Input
Amino acid sequence: MNALIQDETQRMLRLLESSIRQSNMSVRELERRLGLSQGYLPSLFKGRIQLKVAHVYAIARALGIEPLLLFLQVSPPQDPEWLLQQLRPGKDVYLSFLMTEQSLPNRKEIEEIVRTTIRTELERMNGRAPII
Output
């Protein structure tokens, strides 16, 4: 794993730990809500378990936090205007589905859209494909 990814992973772990503390939810309660064994999250935060995107999504949702906001805090876009253009109403996934009268994307489709958006922005910023 390259240094940039390691640095961002450490920042994300610190942000997740901070978010848990601010929520006033115990780590054990969060593990219970996520269906994890006792000690799983401390092992994750100590680096014994590799952080995955699925961890970020699950923890954020359990805490009532928008996962994309966590990713943007850890790795803000170099060109926020570009990101805003990608999210403008004309490109909005929900609006385009509504305009074509298709059904709205389900949770997995939304997660993939967010992953793809983040991956695309990181690739554009770094000139290479990140591991997500």
